[in-house]
Specification:
With 399 residues, the protein is an alpha/beta fold. It has helices at residues 5-14, 41-44, 65-75, 94-102, 116-146, 155-160, 192-209, 231-246, 269-286, 300-305, 310-318, 322-331, 335-344, 349-356, 360-374, 381-398; strands at residues 3-4, 20-23, 31-32, 34-37, 51-55, 80-85, 107-111, 169-178, 213-218, 221-227, 253-259, 293-294.
Length: 399
């Protein structure tokens, strides 16, 4: 887990270190992953991103070279830079200050009398402890999902990391899929390296927003656990998550996000996870990428997700849509697709024919064939409602 630059700055001052912000105040919410000594522009080019750079200026040929060093650190993805004022850098130039303010790139000043190594150690220790807590939290949340009845495996760890056992929780499941397959449900997950890009982007988002949220990996997906947020907040956060991940996604990648029901305590995290997973799969089945699917917006799917016995769903399917799909399979027909369109447009033959690019008489003939196969009357609203539910059940079974 990353740490905000503002928090590191505050901690250094709290421990009486002499460190002052010179420029780039608007960038203090930048996340920091590690610290790095950077003494010239060439070394700055080796930064991997989200480090805080420290420099004494010993590698600079002239005072004016500081601006180039700062710019190189910024373009290499550093979160900020700490400049040690002393024999090598006597003062920070107006050009360097201007660059940092223009790019919201925090620059700090530390006097030569200050032991800069102690500040680096403090920052490193803080980041290391944050990563330790993040790993512990991920293990606890995985246990909460997989072993909800064994509270001893997760409740104490949650509370030690600032998450209450009696808080409400909601679990989101994010799938980052590749479009190398044309079958939406069969889209493979992206590679581990690509997945790391998305998790890193989300860590930065969580850190900057200071959300009470955590992430872990399960079944090739990113599992997001939110604590103490209502439905409106979850909807806003879900959109931000997809927007942030979209910024680092490739043209051949798609993002699908399902968010489960808000729980009453940590004991129900696993249930929310399973709902989020089912909703994410439905999004993929329906081809609705980059749009979050929240439990509160699930309509009839919300009811079907909570059917405890899968056999009930299979039985319902067998007695509604099943015979029609079997007819299509044997005869190479499209009656199920016709029925789906017909129900989608509230029984309008006109709209169904226009959307399917066929004559109205063709649609009318197919509807008669459907009535014959299923032994129903499609003019009956109750029948249309029953078959509509059957189509929803089929989607759940397919996913």
């Amino acid at each position: 887990m990353t740490v905000r630059l503002q928090d590191l700055f505050d901690q250094a001052r709290a421990q009486k270190h002499t460190i002052a912000l010179v420029a780039g105040r608007k960038g203090l919410d930048r996340p920091v992953r590690w610290v790095h000594m950077v003494e010239n522009e060439e070394i700055a080019g080796f930064l991997e991103g989200q480090e805080i750079a420290f420099t004494t200026g010993i590698g600079l040929e002239m005072q004016e070279d500081l601006t180039g060093l700062v710019a190189s650190a910024y373009h290499s993805g550093a979160s900020g830079i700490v400049v040690n004022i002393g024999p090598f850098i006597r003062q920070i130039s107006p050009e360097a200050t201007r660059f940092c303010n223009e790019h919201d790139f925090p620059m700090f000043r530390v006097p030569w009398s200050e032991h800069m190594a102690q500040i680096m150690h403090l920052f490193s220790l803080t980041i290391t402890m944050s990563e330790k807590h993040s790993l512990e939290l991920a293990v606890a949340l995985k246990n909460a999902i997989e072993c909800p009845g064994r509270e001893e495996l997760y409740t104490d760890t949650l509370e030690q990391n600032g998450f209450g056992r009696d808080w409400n929780y909601s679990v989101g499941v994010l799938d980052c899929a590749s479009t190398v397959s044309t079958d939406d449900c069969a889209m493979p997950h992206v590679s581990a390296d690509r997945l790391q890009v998305f998790t890193r982007q989300l860590e930065s988002l969580f850190t900057q927003r200071q959300w009470y949220a955590a992430q872990l990996m399960m079944q090739g997906r990113i599992v997001l656990v939110f604590a103490r947020y209502d439905a409106d907040a979850l909807a806003t956060m879900s959109r931000e998550i997809l927007l942030a991940c979209g910024k680092v996604s490739h043209d051949d990648e798609r993002l699908f996000l399902g968010v489960g029901k808000i729980t009453k305590s940590a004991r129900c995290i696993g249930k929310s996870y399973r709902q989020g997973l089912a909703l994410e799969r439905l999004q993929k089945h329906r081809g609705r990428a980059e749009t979050p699917f929240l439990y509160d917006d699930a309509g009839i799917d919300k009811l079907l997700l909570n059917v405890p016995d899968p056999e009930i769903l299979h039985d319902y399917y067998d007695h509604t849509i099943g015979p029609l799909e079997e007819y299509d399979r044997v005869n190479g027909g499209d009656l199920t697709a016709t029925l789906r369109r017909y129900l989608q447009f509230n029984g309008s033959i006109k709209e169904t024919s226009e959307r399917m690019f066929v004559h109205r008489n063709t649609v009318g003939y197919k509807l008669k064939r459907i009535e014959s196969i299923l032994q129903v009357n499609l003019s009956d609203f109750a029948v249309r409602e029953m078959l509509s539910v059957g189509l929803h059940v089929k989607e759940l079974l397919d996913c």
